[in-house]
Amino acid sequence: MNETTALRGMPKEYFIRSMELFRDGHRHNDTARGMSQFAQPLTDAEIETLANYYACDATAQVANAQPKEVSSQ
Ligand code: HEM
């Protein structure tokens, strides 16, 4: 069973808060400190860019996509 959270579609505010908590040393549930090391050098702008990327649910766009009309002419 997958025990980790999905990043895709994660609300932007939650994503940013989590990244800041790891980066600034206020969240410690990454046993090997991998997440803190990853987040540590990120700027606020870089975190926001990542948040925008993951918050965008690409599958919704695919699900709503309409097939293009095929012309027989
Ligand atoms: C593109 C790279 C990464 C992104 C965007 C990312 C993002 C995140 C976010 C947003 C969370 C919070 C999830 C939540 O609160 O539900 C998280 C948690 C975590 N990340 Fe990362 N992460 C990345 C890379 C890494 C790496 C390289 C490691 C370890 C080597 C790592 C280890 C963890 C751990 C252990 C947690 C805690 C999981 C939990 O609370 O259940 N992450 N990550």
Explained architecture:
The chain has 73 residues and is mostly helical. It has a domain at 12-56. It has four helices and no strands. It is elongated. The mean pLDDT is 85. Bound molecules: protoporphyrin IX containing FE. Protoporphyrin IX containing FE binds next to helix 1 and helix 2. Residues 4-5, 7, 15, 18-19, 29-30, 34-35, 38, 50 line the site of protoporphyrin IX containing FE.
Defining key terms:
0% strand, mainly alpha, 73 residues, 51% helix, binds protoporphyrin IX containing FE, 4 helices
Layout of strands and helices, then pairs:
Blueprint: H1 12-23, H2 34-39, H3 44-55, H4 58-64
The chain binds protoporphyrin IX containing FE.
- Subunit organisation of the chains: single chain
The helix/strand class is: mainly alpha
Largest sheet: none
Please indicate the percent range of residues in DSSP E strands (runs of 2 or more). under 5%
Rounded Rg? 18 Å
SS element count, helices: 4
Low-confidence runs of at least 5 consecutive residues? none
Bound heterogens, unique? protoporphyrin IX containing FE
